[in-house]
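User: Show me an example of a complex going from sequences to structure tokens.

Assistant: Sure. Here are the input components:
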Amino acid sequence: DTEVTQTPKHLVMGMTNKKSLKCEQHMGHRAMYWYKQKAKKPPELMFVYSYEKLSINESVPSRFSPECPNSSLLNLHLHALQPEDSALYLCASSQVLAGVPAGELFFGEGSRLTVL
Amino acid sequence: DAKTTQPNSMESNEEEPVHLPCNHSTISGTDYIHWYRQLPSQGPEYVIHGLTSNVNNRMASLAIAEDRKSSTLILHRATLRDAAVYYCSQGAQKLVFGQGTRLTINP
């Protein structure tokens, strides 16, 4: 099983809503990532988890709250978002080598978020 | 953050080789060079990576300059399914994508 599964595929929310994006992998990877991708731009790294602990936060606003409840699951909790947060949110996973997330990243197909 | 530079777009013909360049002007000695591609409506897909030596796999070849300041992704016989945005990147834990090259393949 080499898949990273993201749900929902599409999400529309208002600025006062609270919603969550979910990501699941069963490859035994111990590093998981959230990326944000705007149209016609490259993916931008948001967060990295290693062994269920947050290891990198790329100065992401607190209205995005990541959570890694176990080694297979990664959530992104959304609250009080702005229209400019509309984007494709990509989850990825990888091995941890010598204590550092490394190697090939396996990406999901993404969750397309629209904030009204 | 580590930065790479790539041409915005390239065009090639089906069944011909394609050479996609990337400059890694800020690369450090321990940074791996990675290439990913992204087809429409999909997440990025791993293509190949390397450190110093040239690398081959079933999808492509990676040629790395001796000073590691540049790399070239080589698709030996392009097909229509190779039309995608190709991203080069450098790093390890923190993989930062370049702006990408949009590759068009003509039948």
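The lines above are the inputs; the final block is the predicted structure for all two components together. The radius of gyration of chain A is 13 Å.
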